[in-house]
Design goal:
The chain is of the alpha/beta class. Helices cover 38% and strands 16% of the residues. It has one domain: Aldolase class I (TIM Barrel, Alpha-Beta Barrel). It has helices at residues 4-12, 16-29, 31-34, 70-75, 119-128, 150-161, 186-207, 223-235, 271-285, 300-309, 318-323, 326-334, and strands at 46-48, 51-53, 57-59, 80-86, 99-102, 107-110, 134-139, 167-171, 213-217, 240-243, 264-267, 291-294, 313-316. The longest helix is centred in the middle third of the chain and has 22 residues, at 186-207.
């Protein structure tokens, strides 16, 4: 039996952001026992970006913004963890309420706004934890940094994260930081990734290790925009791409009382959009760099669809809220064994 099925009514009786904070505290407090409550997740190693993941199911950014709960999430059996989004300076994020459940659609709307304690705090938490698996650090810009200076914040994030991260993700696709998504376009994207690539290679020389650089994109892009992004990723040898972030579309939840809430929509309604972006990217990239799929993965079948569309790895977050941590073992157990 899924132990989360007993707890979910209690969790859902609490305001969403409070429930999330309480869940993290419980996971931190019971990290040594967390793995005992759920089926053991078998190894099913995958190699991507020069890294070996013990299984292809990762925790998406947003669940543990500050790296407070690495050991607890690791005990659940994830093949890798991604923390953040983290910014150079601490920030409170957008005003509350900013997180909404839509159980009828197995969805979440959030407009958190990169609320986090800053990258220095996150790095201290990473060093304090005993987690030794693959760790992605997801970086963004501060809300009060003008968009024309966004690159400065991403460079700070990369430089600070480089020594402890297994890979670094550039999040330019959140809909909850003003003008952020314009960094996905044309010349602005080219300037961002070309400069970040140059800095990555300088840091490789400085630290004596290569840390892959990944771009996270939105599901709301046109096919032409996806093709343009794929071309730039290959031109500048970016190491991977995460598809996708949350959507600003409300087509799948039209008529819902919360449909007019601003923010990014995640969960089941974004599944098909995200899978289509994965499919488009796979066709353009032709295996030249790996795709990490996120968006609407609430079952093993959902994960298999993403992998069949061309992804090498998957990430979950909203799926955990609705299905619990047994989702991880269900996905891994349903996959054929791979050779790392």
């Amino acid at each position: 039996m899924n132990p989360y099925s007993l707890l979910r009514p209690l969790v859902f009786a609490v305001e969403p952001e409070t429930a999330h904070e309480l869940s993290l505290k419980v996971l931190m407090a019971t990290k040594s026992a967390a793995g005992l409550l759920y089926p053991k997740v078998p190894d099913n190693p995958v190699t991507a970006m020069g890294l070996t993941f013990k299984n292809p199911v990762g925790l998406a950014a947003g669940a543990d913004k500050n790296g407070d709960c690495l050991d607890g999430f690791a005990a659940l059996g994830f093949g890798f963890l991604e923390v953040g989004t983290v910014t150079p300076r601490p920030q409170a994020g957008n005003p509350k309420p900013r997180l909404f459940r839509l159980p009828e659609h197995e969805a979440i709307i959030n407009r958190m706004g990169f609320n986090n304690k800053g990258i220095d705090y996150l790095l201290a938490q990473v060093k304090r934890s005993s987690y030794a698996g693959i760790l992605g650090i997801n970086i963004g810009k501060n809300a009060n940094t003008p968009i024309e200076n966004a690159l400065d914040d991403y460079l700070i994030g990369l430089r600070k994260a480089y020594s402890v991260a297994s890979y670094v993700t550039m999040n330019i696709s959140s809909p909850n930081t003003k003008n952020l998504r314009q960094l996905q376009q044309g010349d602005e994207l080219k300037k961002l990734i070309s400069t970040m690539k140059e800095e990555q290679l300088k840091l490789q020389h400085k630290h004596g290790r290569y840390v892959p650089l990944v771009l996270k994109i939105a599901p709301d892009l046109t096919p032409e925009e996806v093709r343009n992004i794929a071309d730039l990723l290959m031109e500048f040898s970016i190491d991977g791409v995460i598809a996708t972030n949350t959507t600003i579309s409300r087509d799948k939840i039209a008529g819902h009382p919360l449909a007019n809430e601003t923010g990014g929509l995640s969960g089941a309604p974004v599944k098909e959009m995200a899978t289509e972006i994965v499919r488009l990217l796979a066709a353009e990239l032709n295996g030249k760099l790996p795709i990490i799929a996120a968006g609407g993965i609430l079952s093993a079948t959902d994960a298999q669809e993403k992998l069949a569309a061309g992804a090498s790895l998957v990430q979950v977050y909203t799926g955990l809220i609705y299905r619990g941590a047994t989702l991880i073992s269900e996905i891994v157990n349903a996959l054929p064994e791979r050779n790392a």
